[in-house]
Every structure is written in structure tokens, then in C-alpha cells.
Design a protein that fits this description.
The protein has helices spanning 3-15, 22-34, 44-54, 58-77, 86-98, 117-135, 139-144, 156-165, 167-180, 183-194, 199-206, 210-232, 238-250, 252-259. α10 crosses α14 (252-259). Helix content is 68%, strand content 0%. The protein is mainly alpha-helical. It is globular, with a radius of gyration of 22 Å. It has 2 domains: 3-135, no CATH class; 139-259. It is built from 14 helices and no strands.
């Protein structure tokens, strides 16, 4: 990283209300250099803050909670039925981010400066809310509900046919289709349909133009439905195949929410 980029990083650190620490500056720079990322495309100030928190810097930890505590509060207020208040949820978030078993790095260290730290945290807190919600559901009820049964009531007649004729095949087809996607495509579908992150927010998170992000999402959806169509071809008559796949495409969020867990997969 050249001197201009280093100075820009120091300015962003001061913008967070912190005094740059040379040791932490070097620690924040290291992954940028190792991955050969362009410094101008990175959220360097956010990366420094995350690194400082990873190292247990008291001022950084206090600044972190001041900056992002309201984000955590908003996330849990949208799910009042969970019975978790804002203070409890903040503690759960902080534990998830900064507490790790001996010999392992805390989760905050997974933030790499691509996109804003706030966007990254919104995804993480959404996932935590989902995990809390799932933990409170009766396992037997969730396990007994099939993919077809979770489709919306707007397709009653069609769903009745699907349930009796193709239920097991649909589940298997979607599982195969999701497995055939690459890691980023599965993560994008998780973030869009499971974490409910908007396309615009995803574009900011990945540091790309919104049109590019919508192209990525369209490609992921098309790839999934292509794989589902291939997997169903042997089970569904040809004259019904396209209508079945079209209906499944209109309810794509159902399959993603049922068949993918909330944990993002690491991208190489």
C-alpha cells in the first residue's frame, strides 16, 4: 500500500473518532496487501475499526457500540415476538462478534473491508434474528412441513396437484439445484431471500454498482431454476414441466428459506 493510501486510512480512522495506532494500521493493511485488493475500493476506516476491536482496543470497542448499537436495536425491534429486548440482543451480537473459543479468531475478523462495516453487520444481525427465531420453533413442526406445503395460498389448486404428484421430487430437485450453484450464488440467495437484504444494500455490501448486483441475482436465480428443471425432467411430464418450474420460480423465496441455513459460506 502506497503512502497516499496509508494517509487516507489514517484520515478515515480519525473520522471514526480514533487515534491511529501504527501497529493496528499495519494489521489492517496486511489483508489488503495479501489479497492484492485496490485500497481505493476498500472501506479502510471500517477495516481498521474491526481490526482494532479484534485486538481488544478499548476505545475502538466503545466507538463500535456507539456507531452500530442503533443498527442492532433496529434489527431486534422488527421481531418483538422473540421476546428479546435491545440490551439482551446487543449482548448477543457482541458475544457473537468478539467472543471465540481458545485458538480461534473472533467473528469480527471475517470482515475484510469490502463494502461498509454497517452493511456487513446488518447481514450478521439479520442472521442472528433468524437463528433465534428458528431456535424457538418446535423442531417437529418445522421438520414435518414440506416445501410445497409452505407455498403461499395464492396457488391452492396447483399446490394440491404438486403436493400429491411431485412433492418429494421437488424437494430433491431444489436441493440438487442449490448444491450445483457456486458459493457466491448461494450466499446471494441467502442474503436476498433469507436475510431479506435488498439488492441496493447488497450492491453496497459487495462494493459494486446496483445494476451489476441485480445481474448477479438474476444469474443466480436463472442458474437455480435451470438446475431444478434438469432435475425434474425425469419426474414431471414435458407438457407440465415449464408451468411447474414457473410456479416454483414465483415462490423461490420459499425454497431458499427452507433448504438453506442462515450461515454464509466462506468464499475463496
Amino acid at each position: 500500500m502506497d503512502e497516499a493510501a496509508r494517509k487516507r486510512l489514517e484520515e478515515q480512522v480519525r473520522g471514526h473518532g480514533l487515534s491511529p495506532d501504527p501497529t493496528l494500521i499495519d494489521a489492517a493493511i496486511a489483508p489488503v496487501v495479501a489479497q492484492n485488493d485496490a485500497p481505493e475500493s476498500m472501506a479502510l476506516g471500517d477495516l481498521y475499526l474491526a481490526v482494532a476491536c479484534t485486538h481488544g482496543d478499548g476505545a475502538a470497542l466503545r466507538r463500535f457500540e456507539t456507531l452500530f448499537g442503533p443498527t442492532f436495536d433496529r434489527a431486534i425491534r422488527r421481531s418483538p415476538k422473540l421476546g428479546v429486548n435491545t440490551d439482551e440482543f446487543r449482548q448477543l451480537v457482541l458475544d457473537r462478534l468478539f467472543v471465540a473459543p481458545a485458538g480461534t479468531a473472533p467473528r469480527i475478523s471475517q470482515y475484510q473491508g469490502r463494502g461498509s462495516l454497517e452493511g456487513w453487520l446488518r447481514v450478521m444481525t439479520s442472521r442472528l434474528v433468524i437463528d433465534l427465531s428458528r431456535a424457538r420453533k418446535r423442531p417437529e413442526a418445522a421438520g414435518d412441513e414440506t416445501l410445497v406445503e409452505r407455498m403461499s395460498d395464492g396457488h391452492n389448486t396447483e399446490v394440491a396437484v404438486l403436493r400429491h404428484s411431485y412433492g418429494p421430487a421437488l424437494e430433491q430437485a431444489f436441493s440438487r439445484g442449490l448444491a450445483a450453484l457456486d458459493v457466491r450464488q448461494r450466499n446471494l440467495l441467502r442474503q436476498r431471500y433469507l436475510h431479506d437484504v435488498s439488492g441496493d444494500a447488497l450492491a453496497k455490501l459487495y462494493g459494486i454498482h446496483r445494476a451489476t448486483m441485480f445481474g448477479w441475482l438474476d444469474k443466480a436465480r436463472a442458474a437455480l431454476l435451470h438446475e431444478v428443471r434438469q432435475a425434474l425432467a425425469a419426474a414431471v411430464p414435458g407438457d407440465q414441466l415449464e408451468s411447474v418450474v414457473g410456479m416454483l420460480g414465483s415462490e423461490l423465496h420459499v425454497s431458499v428459506r427452507r433448504l438453506l441455513d442462515s450461515q454464509l459460506e466462506p468464499e475463496s
